[in-house]
Each structure stands twice: as structure tokens, then as C-alpha cells.
Amino acid sequence: MLNIFLSWAKKKFLLHSQEKPHIYLHQYEVWLVSLGINIGSEINKMRPVIIMANETLLAMNAVLVAPISSNVNSVKSGEFVLESKKSGLNKPSICLLHQMRCVDKKRFVKKLGKLTKEEIQLLQLKCRDIFII
To answer: Which has the higher per-residue pLDDT, 39 or 115?
Structure first.
């Protein structure tokens, strides 16, 4: 376990020492992001995420994202299935809205795709249910 944390600490140091990246992000795009090693049930490792932040908030260095998992065995409240190939995912996956978090733009690796209009509508409905907005 210690080796895993030391490996992540080294990678985190390299990410932190990079210059601010010149990337252009847009709400509802799907990107591959290095989330690192986390604690307990927090989502971690290199994985796709959906950009949740609107265009105004994307001017910040930290971006609100919702991680994606390919473990679709049991979809729970706060999750929804993504099946579109337009999102850039190779197989059906679930968006983990209950695991949303802010990540620095330095963690973004590459753009995979974008949600369809139908997926965006479903995402917005799920967010309203979760956050009671």
C-alpha cells in the first residue's frame, strides 16, 4: 500500500510542477482525468469524467467534474447509464453524480467526446433530483 501512495505522490508532484495547461473545456464534454489515489470509497485512478461546470466557472483553474465508471452491474440513486458512443466511451458506463468533485486543469489528459442532448437532459434531471433544485 505504501508503494502505491509513494507512486502517486511522485506523479502528483510532476502534475503540480507542470505549467498551466492551454486546454479548452466545455460543459458536458467527457475527458480522461488523472484522479490519483484517494481514501475509502472516493473514486480514484485515471478515469473518464463529465465536465459539470458551466462556461463561466470553466475560467477557474479547478473544474467541477462527475467521474464515470464502467461497473454498470448495479445502478444506484445518483448514477445514470451512458450508452452513447459520442461520449467517447468504449462500453456502457455510469456517471457517478454522488462523487462529483473539483479537479485542477493539470489533471486533464485528453478529450474523449461529448454527451448527446438526451444524455444532457437526463443528467440535468438527475442533478435536480439529487440537489433538489
So the answer is: 115
Q: What's the whole-model pTM score?
A: 0.80
| C-alpha closest to that of 125 among 80, 85, 74, 84 | 80
Q: Is 6 exposed, middle or buried (0-12, 13-18, 19+ CB in 10 A)?
A: exposed
User: Is the distance from CB of 100 to CB of 127 less than 8 angstroms?
Assistant: no
Q: 3-class DSSP state for residue 90? A: coil
Q: Would you identify the CATH topology of the domain 2-131?
A: SH3 type barrels. (2.30.30)
User: In whole angstroms, how large is the CA radius of gyration of the chain?
Assistant: 15
Chain-centre distance of CA 64, in angstroms?
Answer: 8
Residue spans of the domains in the chain: they are 2-131
Separation between Cα atoms, residue 23 and residue 32, nearest integer Å: 13
CA–CA gap between residue 129 and residue 116 (Å, rounded): 20
pLDDT in tens, 6-26: 665 666 566 566 666 678 899
